[in-house]
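Trying the structure run again after the queue cleared.
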Amino acid sequence: MGYCTRQHIRPQPRAERTELIAPPIAFLDLEASGLGPASWPVEVGWCFLSGRPQTMLIKTADGWPDTAWDPAAEKLHGLSRAKLARAGRPPRIICETMNDALADAVVYSDAPDWDGFWLYRLFEAAKIRRRFDLLNFAELFERVSPARFNEAKAVAQAKTPHRHRARPDVLHMRALFRLVGNDDGDGNGG
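Done. Tokens:
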């Protein structure tokens, strides 16, 4: 007597995707009231490898000392106290916007010590925690020959000059990164 058995076929588990997606790279710059220990940020900007840069003027927070305003810094970046009062945004709004934009990014600055200090002042005034780290832009070029770097720097300066304003300065960093590329060909800049 024969009978037919139905075999239960268990579905095989799907192969899990193990490919890694690199976090986006962003470039960040701040301008400030001066370079003293009580100085505070007046402008912030960032951009990713593609897309338009974002910039915001920063309204002076309560507790940031008037004595930290350096006329030489104002002459360099061209931002007056009156313009910041009129067009600046409160630190809390700026910090929330930055956290939303940069929380999943690898963020580079060409002056991480100063920019990190001013970010600290900004987030402290906003009373919120920063959700991104700041890395040194120079680390992206550690394996690039000095000749190649200097050539790319000259081209970047001609195309997108560094001007001590957040927008042109983040565009300058992005241009330099794109021009130098990556010696090992993985497109990550180092």
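The longest strand covers residues 25-32. Worth checking whether this holds up in the mutant runs.
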